[in-house]
Amino acid sequence: NKFGFAIDFARDYQLFEKGFHNYDLELAIGYNTEEWSSTEVAYQFGRNFDLSYWMAAGETRFKLHDKLSVEYELRKVHFNPDPDNESTWLNIATFNYQFTPDLFVRLFTQHRTENNRVYVYGLFGWRFKLPNSAIYFVYTRDDFDRPESMRANNEIFFLKLAYDFGI
After folding, report:
1. pLDDT at 1
2. Smaller CB count within 10 Å for the chain: N or C?
3. Tally of CA atoms within 13 A in the half-sphere of 112 that contains its CB
């Protein structure tokens, strides 16, 4: 069938101001996860830098059209103790449009409730000499509440050029 189940356990040791024994366990169940159009729900819990946490997540990906695809993910992250009020909801949406296999546009947006942060990322890409030569036009905007009860934002536009000289 097209259902899948996964269990993932990770453990590590980090030494900073003291030693931290971090670990997490994730349980996930998904439908059609080997294909592009898929759905998955997961629950993860563990310990990270002296904070216990749990996270519940749901994600779906599907094609609206041969050239247009949509991805949506919802996450709830809860820390205990939570001295800095970092527990949050994350809403993440991505839209992809493929003009051709080598010419595409992507719009990614994320909202985080902990600081009312809204992040927008736009990418226009053109691969003109396969496999590694491409040009990308990128725009990012980041709006968030600052602790001083002020709203802040950052905007960045940049151009990336990658060229394979074939050497």
Report:
1. 73
2. C
3. 15
What the block records as the tokens of 20 is 């931290």
Query: Is the confidence at residue 145, as pLDDT, over 80?
Result: no
pLDDT, tens only, 126-138: 999 888 899 999 9
Predicted confidence (pLDDT) at residue 143 exceeds the cutoff of 90: no
- For 88-128, give the DSSP string: EEEEEEEEEEEEETTEEEEEEEEEETTTTEEEEEEEEEEEE
The distance in angstroms from the start CA to the end CA of the chain is 46
CA dihedral 48, 30, 58, 36 (to 10 degrees): 110
pLDDT 10s digits, 40-80: 999 999 998 888 999 999 999 999 999 999 999 999 999 99
Q: How many CA atoms lie within 13 A of 116 on its CB side?
A: 9
Report d(CA 121, CA 83) in Å as an integer: 30
Q: Which of 69, 158, 152 is nearest to 122 (CA)?
A: 158
pTM, two decimal places: 0.80
Cis bond before residue 101 (omega within 30° of 0): no
